[in-house]
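New to this. Explain these tokens.
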Amino acid sequence: MSYPPPNAPAPGGRTAPLQWQDGGRAHIDVRGLPAPQPLVAILRLVRALPEGTSAVVVHHDRDPMLLYPELAELGWGATRIEGDPGEVRLLLEVLS
């Protein structure tokens, strides 16, 4: 089950990220959230993932430059993947 559809716009006034599972991966949509909420939410999710979960898809509306060094400290990397127009979609994975 995929909720919301990946191309759904962020509802106005949203104050929390949307999270769901799809294709065996955790997804988090932080579009429309003011800084630093996206960074905090993504890091919170990565730290709370069950053992064995090694990939997260992030739906963002900008390139989260401050996220990358934080992920590296936790042993994670980020790769930009194809997303909807105007969306920055990242695949976060545990570095081996």
Remarks:
- DSSP finds two helices and five strands in the chain.
- The domain at 18-94 is CATH 3.30.110.40 (Translation Initiation Factor IF3).
